Structures are given as C-alpha cells and as structure tokens.
Amino acid sequence: MHPGTMVRQDCLEKNGLSVTDAARILGVDRQTLSNLLNARSGISPEMAVRLEKAFGTPAREWLIRQLDHELAEVMRRADEIEVEPFHAVAGEESGES
C-alpha cells in the first residue's frame, strides 16, 4: 500500500479533514498533499516531520513505510534487474594488491 493511502486514512479521514484543511495544517500547498495522497509522490523526510508534528505518528515510521513501499515496488521487478554477482579474488577481499 502506498503511504499516501495511509496518510489519507490515518490523518485525513480519521480526523474528518479535507485535503485543503490538511494541507493548511501541514503547511504545504494543496497540490503537494494531493500528489502524496494519490500516489504521485512519496513521503519526503520533511513531509514525515510535518506529519509527525501535526498528527503524532513519528517521522521515522512514515519514512519506514515509504522505504518499505519503494522496496516492495522494486522487488516486484527484481528478476528484470541484471547484475553479475561479485566474486572476490583470494587476497583482494580487504583491498590488498
């Protein structure tokens, strides 16, 4: 689930706030909040702090939710990411020459 959905549920709907009202409380413009709520942008560290100050959920939790979401998105396509496994040569593991 995109963290914007959680913001909508946990912050706006739970408190009966409109997007306009919540944007004013957070000190951001309506479009910025709308982009987050509609999964067009993620939660930045600054937005996480704003959410913590306004609604009480720690900024770290918002950022963890964002990171978990981003990692899940990448893992869905992990098979498409081509990387050659690294194999250290004996004696070079710690930067020896």
CATH topology name, in short, is 434 Repressor (Amino-terminal Domain)
Total beta strand runs: 0
Strand content: under 5%
Unreliable sequence segments: none
CATH-defined architecture: Orthogonal Bundle
CATH superfamily, by name, is lambda repressor-like DNA-binding domains
Number of domains: 1
Q: SS-based structural class?
A: mainly alpha
Tell me the Rg in angstroms. Answer: 19 Å
Mean pLDDT: 94
Domain HTH cro/C1-type: 13-62
Protein name: Plasmid maintenance system antidote/antitoxin/XRE
Keywords: DNA-binding
GO molecular function, one term: DNA binding
List the defining traits of the structure above.
97 residues, mainly alpha, 434 Repressor (Amino-terminal Domain)
Topology (elements, then pairings):
Elements: H1 3-15, H2 19-26, H3 30-37, H4 45-55, H5 59-75
Overview of this structure, please?
This protein has 97 residues and is mainly alpha-helical. It has one domain: 434 Repressor (Amino-terminal Domain), CATH 1.10.260. The chain has helices at residues 3-15, 19-26, 30-37, 45-55, 59-75. The mean pLDDT is 94.
Summarize the structure.
The chain is 59% helix and 0% strand. With 97 residues, the chain is an all-alpha fold.
